[in-house]
# Entry
Amino acid sequence: MANTTSNRPLSPHLQVYKLIPTMLASIVHRITGAALYFGTLLVAWWLIATASGVDAYSWVQWAMSSIIGKLVLIGYTWALVHHMLGGFRHFMWDLGHGFDKHFTTKMAKASWVVSICLTALIWVIALIVR
# Structure
């Protein structure tokens, strides 16, 4: 009996496609969505520690004020901002606007720049208000 699947063409996959900004934006949007899911556990941890008393709260504050904790919080902030901007992009598409190839590429690139700038602005304001 002949193998009928050996003559079939292979489906394209990530090794075939060239990575373009819109594809990267889509992939990162999904990754930031997952990161926000796990980052929400940090918010829950902080809220539970706030309700649990001074000792639990001071332990969370110590963990989040460490270098690793601050990097995690900055990453969480960036994921939140980047995912929000991607959501705006999707909302615009849902309204039927912005489907031009060059415009979507510009928006994908702009989402990186704007998300990094907004994250930096948020943290600068947070450090000034502190």
Summary: The chain is about 80% helix and 0% strand. The longest helix spans residues 21-52. The helical segments are 21-52, 54-65, 67-94, 101-129. Residues 6 and 98 are 42 Å apart (CA to CA).
